[in-house]
Amino acid sequence: MNILTMLFGWLNDQLLKMKWLSELIRLFVEKVFGLSINDRIGGSIHFFIYDTIKIFILLSVLIFIISYIQSYFPPERTKKILGRIKGIKGNILGALLGTITPFCSCSSIPIFIGFTSAGLPLGVTFSFLISSPMVDLASLMLLMSFFGAKIAIAYVIVGLILAVVGGTLIEKLGLEKYVEGYVREIENIDTDFIEMSRDERISYSKEQVKDIIHKVWLYVLIGVGVGSAIHNWIPQSVIENVIGENNPFAVLMATVVGIPMYADIFGTLPIAEALATKGVGIGTVLSLIMAVTALSLPSMIMLSKVVKTKLLAIFVSIISVGIIIIGYLFNAFSYIFI
């Protein structure tokens, strides 16, 4: 058991946290710039270069792997799978299938429209819509690289629970009439699924890597830049006073601040990492991540074109309350994850 623990720790440190890369960047900053990473400027340069390279390496590898898996579940096949299962089982399956689909909420909405026009239960489609941007294999691995396995696994579990509960509540409330009429009228063409060869899957995965990196690279750089500023320039006392553990409204504030931001988990994690190192509660940090990924303002604007105001308001309310509850629970039981 000790050998397995040591092996897992080594793999986590070297493959996910990339401590070897951190050491290389430290030597680079000291030799090339003549700066210590313990100083503000040197620390900022180290944080920015190290986190940027680490995120893009992990991003490329994870997107390739997930896209390869995703090639087995195109929308046509996914609709057929979801269409066969009703009730809570359908919500669970919708949430799980959301983990192997696009990485931001805006990308998920067109698929949500397709599922709705195909006549899938509204609760199932919302479970998919919630989990798709917030919980995926990439977020699991990246969270492990920043916060460790316990927090990463717990985040994925509560994210899936939120997706299932949110979809179930929307289904039970009978809100189908609040979907815009044109969505139901969209002609749903049931095309045959074309099996891809191994080379085609590899080519598809490479294209997905290029496409997604092209979409997110700017947000990653902004996120790393903000994280670097928080980590090296903002005093810990300021962070603690604003959203530290002593502020009972910290989780609420993090959720509200996260909603108008437009980013994905890749751009949000460097900020979350910097906040965590400044003493911000893990629940507060995770609430920020969830709010940014699941309730970003641009995706809500897109969703407002698909559903009526009442359904949109109920959706935002359910997810916001869920995120806040999750945040406070994580803060209350943070000793489990430390």
Automatic annotation (TrEMBL):
<feature type="transmembrane region" description="Helical">
    <location>
        <begin position="47"/>
        <end position="69"/>
    </location>
</feature>
<dbReference type="InterPro" id="IPR005524">
    <property type="entry name" value="DUF318"/>
</dbReference>
<dbReference type="InterPro" id="IPR053166">
    <property type="entry name" value="UPF0718_permease"/>
</dbReference>
<feature type="transmembrane region" description="Helical">
    <location>
        <begin position="246"/>
        <end position="263"/>
    </location>
</feature>
<feature type="transmembrane region" description="Helical">
    <location>
        <begin position="151"/>
        <end position="170"/>
    </location>
</feature>
<keyword id="KW-1003">Cell membrane</keyword>
<dbReference type="Pfam" id="PF03773">
    <property type="entry name" value="ArsP_1"/>
</dbReference>
<keyword id="KW-1133">Transmembrane helix</keyword>
<protein>
    <recommendedName>
        <fullName>Permease</fullName>
    </recommendedName>
</protein>
<keyword id="KW-0812">Transmembrane</keyword>
<comment type="similarity">
    <text>Belongs to the UPF0718 family.</text>
</comment>
<feature type="transmembrane region" description="Helical">
    <location>
        <begin position="90"/>
        <end position="113"/>
    </location>
</feature>
<feature type="transmembrane region" description="Helical">
    <location>
        <begin position="311"/>
        <end position="337"/>
    </location>
</feature>
<feature type="transmembrane region" description="Helical">
    <location>
        <begin position="216"/>
        <end position="234"/>
    </location>
</feature>
<keyword id="KW-0472">Membrane</keyword>
<dbReference type="GO" id="GO:0005886">
    <property type="term" value="C:plasma membrane"/>
</dbReference>
<feature type="transmembrane region" description="Helical">
    <location>
        <begin position="275"/>
        <end position="299"/>
    </location>
</feature>
